[in-house]
């Protein structure tokens, strides 16, 4: 008797992705509706150019604001320090800085540029608040508040090392 042996051929099964597709169909709309869309404000800045300084000797104001650990120094790049605004008990005195910027703007109405120099450990928040005090001032003259531009073209750089008075030793040399 002859027996025929019949063997089953195994076919590879197809990949069943029905459950995965169902999950994606539900997950994508959920993620899109719960996503937080934020708008980042971008401020256009320029770094100070490397120059010898001779091309800047025109007799006008070269405004520099240096952010120190203990004060804000307002000065002219050519003329030197104009005013030092010491910190208050709450921190930097941005109100005084803003009023000084307004005074400088009345003396130099065509001037648009200012340079802000910050020490390496200056926080980003302090830098932005300084830029805001230098760029614009809020005014409310018998109506809604308006913004008046002071020095909108801001350059940012590193502050020079603060010079300190030499320390005298108690020993005679």
Task: Provide an overview of this structure.
The chain is of the alpha/beta class and 173 residues long. 25% of the residues lie in helices and 22% in strands. It has helices spanning 18-34, 94-107, 124-135, and strands spanning 63-67, 71-76, 80-86, 113-118, 136-139, 146-149, 153-158. The strands form two sheets. The protein has a five-stranded mixed beta sheet with strand order 3-2-1-4-7, covered by helices on one side. Strands 5-6 form a two-stranded antiparallel ribbon. A hairpin with a 3-residue loop joins strand 2 and strand 3. Helix 2 (94-107) runs parallel beside helix 3 (124-135). The longest helix has 17 residues, at 18-34. The chain is elongated, with a radius of gyration of 32 Å. Mean pLDDT is 79; it is low at 51-58 and 165-169.
List keywords for this structure.
173 residues; alpha/beta; two-stranded antiparallel sheet; 3 helices; 7 strands; elongated
Shape: elongated
- Major β-sheet profile: 5 strands, mixed
Tally of strands: 7
Low-confidence stretches: 51-58, 165-169
Taking all residues together, what is the mean pLDDT? 79
Rg calculated over all Cα atoms = 32 Å
Helix proportion: 10-25%
Number of discrete helical segments: 3
Strand content: 15-25%
Give the end-to-end Cα distance, rounded to a whole number of Å.
Answer: 125 Å
Structural class: alpha/beta
Across the major sheet, the strand order is 3-2-1-4-7
Q: SSE string, helix = H, strand = E?
A: HEEEHEHEEE
């Amino acid at each position: 008797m002859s027996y025929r042996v019949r063997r089953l051929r195994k076919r590879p099964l197809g990949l069943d992705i029905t459950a995965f597709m169902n999950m994606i169909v539900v997950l994508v709309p959920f993620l899109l509706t719960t996503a937080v869309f934020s708008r980042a404000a971008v401020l256009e800045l320029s770094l100070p150019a490397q120059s010898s300084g001779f091309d800047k000797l025109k007799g006008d104001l070269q405004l520099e604001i240096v952010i120190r650990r203990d004060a804000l120094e307002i000065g002219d790049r050519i003329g030197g320090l104009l005013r030092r605004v010491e910190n208050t008990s709450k921190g930097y005195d941005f109100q005084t800085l803003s009023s000084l910027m307004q005074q400088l703007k009345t003396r130099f109405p065509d001037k648009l540029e200012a340079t802000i120099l910050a020490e390496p450990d200056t926080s980003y928040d302090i830098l932005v608040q300084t830029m805001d005090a230098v760029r614009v001032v809020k005014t409310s003259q018998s109506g809604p508040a308006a913004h008046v531009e002071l020095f909108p073209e801001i350059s940012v750089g590193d502050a020079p090392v603060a010079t300190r008075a030499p320390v005298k030793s108690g020993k005679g040399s």
